[in-house]
Structure formats: C-alpha cells, structure tokens
Write a structure and sequence with these properties.
single chain; 427 residues; alpha/beta; 5-stranded mixed beta sheet; 9 helices; 18 strands; 21% strand
C-alpha cells in the first residue's frame, strides 16, 4: 500500500531546570549563589528529503521526541541544550493538527525546513535571583515544559498535470509513453495503488511534470475504494487530463465517466473544477480509422464548454504530440508559482491558550502583563528575531490581550512590561 498518510505524536524537549548552589571555596565562608542556567530543550524540525516519495517511515512508529535540556550546574555551569529532532519527509507533505485538521506547515515550494515545535526554555539558576535583601536565594527557575501534539501527515503529490480516469482506460500506458516513468502495466480491472510521476520532455526544453492519479471511482469523495487516499493529490495539479476508452473495449460510456469523475472532484473540493481540463480519447488503435461515434459524442458534449478532445493511441503514440502541446499551452496560462498551503494553526497558541494572565498598572504607569500564559510564550518565542516578535504580536492579538489593554486605556507610547521585557505600545 502506498503510504501517503500517517498520524504521529511529536514532542519538543523540556527545558532544563536552573540550579541552586553557592560558592564553596577556602577562605570564602559566605560565597554567593552560583547556580547555572538549564539548557534549552530540543526543537522538532521537519525537513524535505528529495530521496523520499512516501511516508512509510511513519506508519510503524507513532511517537517522536526531541531531547530535553540538561539541568544547570555548580559554578555557573550552563546545562547542555537538548538535541533537535529532525524528521525527514517527502516534498509535498502537509502537516496538520490532528484534532482540528488545520494546517501547521506545508513542506512545499521554498519551505524545505520548518521548526514545528520549539523546545522549552531553560530555567534560570539561583544566581539571577540575588537581591540586596536576599543575597542567598535558595530558589531556581524550573525549565519550561515541553509541547506534545498529535499531527497528521498528508502527502499531496506535486505535479503540473494530473491524469484521471476509471481503471483500465490506459493512464499508465500513456504515462509510460510520454515520460520516463515506468509504471506497472497490465490488464487490471482494479486501480493502480500509487500515484506515478514522470517528466514530459518537450522539444524546446519546456517540459512539465505529469502524474497518474489513481483511485477515482464513483463514491471516491465519500471514501469508497481508495478515493480519499488519492483525491488530495489532484489539489496541487494545474491541468487535469481525462483519459477515456474511445474504442469501447471495456463497455463503458466515456461521457458518463467524465461527468462521474468531475462530480467526485467537485464533491471533494469545488475549486478543482476551475482547473483547465482536456480529454484524451484513448485506444484509437483499436478502432477503424481515427474517428468514431464515441469521439464525435465527446466533442459535442464537452468542446462547447472549451474542453478540447484529442483522439490518441497511448500504444502507438498517434495523436499524443498534439495533445501534449495543447496541455503545455494550458499550463502557460496558469500561475507559475507552486501551490503552497498557508499555515492555519500554531501549536504554541493552542498549547498556551487556556493559561491565565493578569494586567495591572505599575506605579510608574506601565502596563504589567504577567501570568503563566505570558511567561510560557516568552520562553517559547525568540524575541530577538523579527519573525519571533511578529509571532508574539499575533499571539497577543488572537488571545485578546491587546484588546484588553485598549479597554484599560493604553495609548501610543505607553510602556508594556512583561517580566524581563519592556515594549512601547503603538497601535
């Protein structure tokens, strides 16, 4: 079975605890605190591996965890940071939150390496808590907790052109004729079990990637047969080519087949019917002449809607060249950029959303925002980077904290204080 779906549990590394210790040296009877900070927990990072084309590695193992950070040590020794967990996936893998189904990351286009879960921040050692009134603190900060979520991995094949059609109409034969792909070909009355991809090399060098999308039968959008397993692969294609049996060797009605497949595509995602389509009337090597009543009826039914019909023989190659040039013409009118799905969900936002927080006014007029929600988010976010700061702003907005500050009368230029961070507020 082609492995294009997997559900796994991923966990970032917990931050190491800060250490409580005091200097103990000869002739220094009352040494100060010297507890070191804990190490940062490891991140969970997804990386595109060009050598992979399935998610098989994740079908027999369910749990993956990054290494926790080590506890701080004596003499200001910093705990070792936890090792990051690198998970390799094929290009086109979409990572979703298993509970909500929302997209966390799409490993396509320029997204070759994505940090999906950040490790917990290491806790501060007791040396950081010394004050003029408490010179020997016996307290150190614990490391930040790890984040654990269940994610759904879905591989959506990336191809410019998708071949669709009922079993045994010649899709695999066509693919082997026009590309370097070598699919298994036989007179099967059941569908191919995995998408086959190949590159079409045109004479002028402007080729394209084409994929045989299997599993499309009536009821596919309801999960019948292998429908749901493969309908997702059509979402990234730019042009859809219907392969039908123009010789009637299977006793099927090509017009009814095309309508049935388009119905399944629409039921799965109505946007799919907006893609350009073309019809390849295959197996003309099995009819007398190059035309028959089946081809005539296909033209009468679909060409009025702008869908061209090309009689071809995938076996002899007749008519294939003309079809490919038309497909390339359709592709030239499509957007050039790859279809990449935008993130809809951030695991950190979901993990910290139920934690409490408070907003108070300090004596100097600053707005003080504190609580587990804020402390954990600050530990999870790299505030020194522009991307991290924008992420934290999004968190403040989505959690309603900015709205609450506005209701409390905050104005441009006012100070917002969050533990060790101070910001000037500007709307």
């Amino acid at each position: 079975m082609f492995a294009d779906r997997a559900k796994i549990i991923i966990k970032s590394g917990r931050g190491g605890d800060g250490h409580v210790s005091f200097r103990r040296e000869k002739y220094v009877p009352d040494g100060g605190p010297d507890g070191g900070d804990g190490g940062k927990g490891g991140d969970v990072i997804f990386v595109v591996d060009e050598g992979l084309n399935t998610l098989t590695d994740y079908r027999h193992r369910r749990k993956f965890a990054a290494e926790p950070g080590q506890e701080g040590g004596k003499k200001n020794c910093h705990g070792k940071n936890g090792e990051d967990l690198i998970l390799k996936v094929p290009e086109g893998t979409v990572i979703k939150d298993a509970d909500s189904g929302k997209i966390i990351a799409d490993m396509s286009g320029e997204n070759r390496r994505m940090v999906v879960l950040r490790g917990g921040r290491g806790g501060l050692g007791n040396q950081h808590f010394a004050t003029s009134t408490m010179q020997a603190p016996k307290y150190a900060q614990p490391g930040q907790e790890a984040i654990e979520i269940e994610v759904l991995l879905e591989l959506k094949v990336i191809a410019d052109v998708g071949l669709v059609g009922f079993p045994n109409v010649g899709k695999s034969t066509f693919l082997s004729r026009v590309t370097n792909a070598q699919p298994k070909i036989a007179n099967y009355h059941f569908t191919t079990l995995q998408p086959n991809l190949g590159v079409v090399d045109m004479e002028d060098g402007n080729g394209f990637v084409i994929a045989d999308i299997p599993g499309l039968i009536e009821g596919a959008s309801d999960g019948i047969g292998l429908g749901h397993e493969f309908l997702r692969h059509i979402e990234r294609t730019k042009v859809i080519v219907h392969i039908v049996d123009a010789a009637g060797t299977e006793g099927r009605d090509p017009i009814a087949d095309i309508h049935a497949i388009n119905k399944e595509l629409s039921a799965y995602n109505p946007e799919l019917l907006k893609k350009p389509q073309v019809i390849a009337a295959n197996k003309i090597d099995a009819i007398y002449g190059d035309e028959n009543e089946i081809i005539d009826s296909l033209r009468n039914e679909f060409e009025r809607d702008g869908i061209r019909v090309y009689p071809i023989s995938a076996v002899s190659g007749k008519g294939v060249r003309e079809l490919l040039f038309h497909v390339r013409e359709l592709l030239s009118k499509c957007p050039k950029e790859a279809i990449v799905y935008e993130p809809e969900f951030d695991p950190a936002l979901g993990f910290f959303k139920d934690e409490p927080y408070t907003i108070t006014r300090a004596e100097d007029g600053a707005f003080v925002v504190e609580g587990p929600k804020i402390e954990k988010m600050l530990g999870y976010t790299n505030m020194d980077s522009e991307k991290g700061f924008l992420f934290f702003q999004k968190f403040m907005r989505e959690q309603g904290i900015l709205k609450e500050l506005e209701e409390m009368g905050i104005e441009d230029g006012d100070t917002v204080r969050m533990y060790y961070n101070e910001f000037d507020y500007y709307k």
